[in-house]
Amino acid sequence: MHFQDQTAYHDDGRKKPIVCLLGVFDSSMSELPWSLSEEFTTQIQQKIMQSRQLFLVQDYPLVNYLLSQDRNYKPFLQDLNVLHNLPLQSEYVVFMELIRHDLKKSTESVSLTEKLDMAIRVRIIDLRGKSPRIILQELFEKKTDILGSLSLIDYRSNTWGSASFSVLPLGIAHNDFCNTLAERIEEYILVAKYK
Prior knowledge:
By secondary structure, the chain is an alpha/beta fold. The protein is built from 3 helices and 6 strands. Strands 1, 2, 3, 4, 5 and 6 form a 6-stranded mixed sheet that branches. Helix 1 (about 35-50) packs across helix 3. The chain is globular and about 55 Å long. The relative contact order is 0.18.
């Protein structure tokens, strides 16, 4: 599903919340041979678009503003009021930073599992009022046991985007993580919109 495949209204005529979901900023230092930022951003966007509850937009004035700033690897704005000075179509903006993506071998010598520890900082800002308001700011964490040894899987030839990745242990874990996070983002925005 692509941005142009969405509709701004529900079937009953109600307007959907307009959301700018910025790309995941990756500060995890992962050694995987692909961009976790691109993978997680794409998966979260796809999940939200498939649910058809939010209307995602690419708010270029905000993206351009953020790209022009020297953020020193800090993906979250400190001064939220700058959002009201930009010509945005969004009602909500979602900032995300992947801060941890660690794969740890089990300490048990006979264990067939490894631990995947992931964490993303999430901030959702509501732009509908007189001043921007944070409606969610949290560290979303998930630890997953992964069966089988990841060291036996060649992720250089089975990267994200390959035909086999989605059925491999890491692909399944990433998909579950992104789906759960997308549902959480959607839930907070819908509660804010319709309360």
